[in-house]
Design goal:
There is one protein chain. The protein has 317 residues and is an alpha+beta fold. 43% of the residues lie in helices and 15% in strands. It contains nine helices and seven strands. The strands form two sheets. Strands 3, 4, 5, 6 and 7 form a five-stranded antiparallel β-sheet that branches. It has a two-stranded antiparallel sheet with strand order 1-2. A hairpin with a 2-residue loop joins strand 1 and strand 2 (9-13). The longest helix has 26 residues, at 262-287. Residues 140-154, 251-259 and 313-317 have low confidence and may be disordered. This is polynucleotide adenylyltransferase. The chain crosses the membrane at residues 97-116. InterPro entries: NuclTrfase_I-like_C, PolA_pol_cen_dom.
Length: 317
């Protein structure tokens, strides 16, 4: 996937390497040629999953366009644009963190269009929210049983939370931002779900903010630079996670069964279930015993302490 920005507009271009010069087309490839290429690539000794996904994305989009039809395609595009804008504005867009991506929203929008082919875009947008907020998903949604409105957990704003987790990837060179921090990002979704399950007695749910901070020495949180002096000019990638506590969480002045405070208990679980496990996976798959000047650190932070992490402005978006 090639990510581009032209005139402040983000868009992606699917990329796939052709098997050889014999595959160079005289004309743009059609669906049949793309499908044939996919079958060829899939039969190789070491199939490249990224290439197959890129080609399958093309076929999926082409199939959706055909099913929607030319008569309703303009309405479909407008509905898709509206749902993308909604998802990005509420920080629930980006498949690496388990949120919506372009193809998933396209499928959902097509489904709504099939239900209401003659309806207006605003009407379909309302039905999109209503139908999919009450859809019988495979994973349980806790919103209704907790008596909240359907969209509260999706509206990421700091005022919705009083407890946070700041996850920081710290490296010394830019190459490791893409390599190590990119690996961390791909693993966060699963580890945060595991964290919610372990902390079920205290935590209702956690919601990671889908856009991140990048920075050099001036942008790494002050606490990170102070606590990690061995990084002279650290580069950081930061994720902010809002944590919705249950009605009667363990207060700071109370002791858990382990006789430790809430912050210490959170940090202990975060270090064990997120930092250590993700780093062990990276070591096994990438480092394989080699040393790199990298670190991952997850910390529990209360609402009033965000200023000390130099991310108050970012959180208030």
């Amino acid at each position: 996937m090639i990510e581009l920005k032209i005139s402040n507009i983000d868009f992606d271009i699917s990329f796939a390497a052709i098997p050889g010069v014999d595959w160079l087309p005289k004309e743009p490839l059609g669906a049949d040629e793309v499908e044939l290429m996919m079958k060829f690539l899939a039969k190789q000794k070491s199939p490249q999953e990224a290439m197959l996904k890129a080609l399958s994305g093309y076929l999926a989009n082409k199939a959706i366009k055909k099913m929607v039809g030319s008569r309703n395609f303009s309405k479909f595009k407008n509905l898709l644009w509206a749902t993308k804008f909604w998802a990005k504005s509420n920080h629930i867009y980006g498949n690496q963190l388990g949120f919506f991506n372009g193809i998933s929203l396209a499928i959902l929008c097509a489904k709504i269009l099939f239900y209401y082919p003659n309806a207006s875009v605003p009407f379909m947008l309302e039905k999109f929210m209503l139908i999919f907020s009450t859809w019988n998903w495979p994973m349980p949604v806790k919103i209704a049983e907790n008596g909240q409105n359907d969209f509260e957990p999706f509206n990421w704003r700091p005022s919705a939370y009083r407890h946070f987790v700041v996850i920081t990837c710290i490296v010394s060179v830019k190459q490791h931002i893409l390599q190590f921090c990119g690996f961390v990002e791909r693993k966060l979704r699963v580890q945060l779900l595991h964290f919610d399950q372990i902390m079920d007695s205290l935590v209702d749910y956690s919601h990671i903010k889908s856009d991140q901070q990048f920075g050099g020495n001036d942008h790494c949180p002050t606490k990170i630079r102070e606590n990690n002096p061995r990084f002279r000019n650290p580069l950081c990638k930061i994720w902010l996670v809002g944590v919705k506590m249950k009605n009667a969480p363990m207060e700071n002045n109370q002791k858990s069964s382990k006789n430790i405070k809430l912050e210490e208990y959170f940090d202990e679980i975060l270090n064990k279930e997120i930092d250590t496990k993700i780093f062990e996976q990276y070591d096994a798959k990438v480092l394989k015993g080699w040393y790199q000047h990298i670190k991952m650190e997850s910390k529990y932070v209360k609402w009033g302490e965000l200023d000390g992490w130099d991310i108050q402005t970012k959180a208030n978006e």
